[in-house]
Amino acid sequence: MRNKLRRSRNDxxxxxxxxxxxxxxxxxxxxxxxxxxxxxxxxGLPGLVPYLLLWIIIPSE
Length: 61
What we know:
By secondary structure, the protein is an all-alpha fold.
């Protein structure tokens, strides 16, 4: 049975989105944090909007 996508309670810095994505895909949450940080650099919106949408869409543990 595959894990469900949930925001992490244990591995969170802001909302647990990257921790949840890391658990779901079996990767380090730091990979997702670096991706979102990289997307924040060219003005903020390319990284902020997807993060906020995921924060709203993905349920908490």
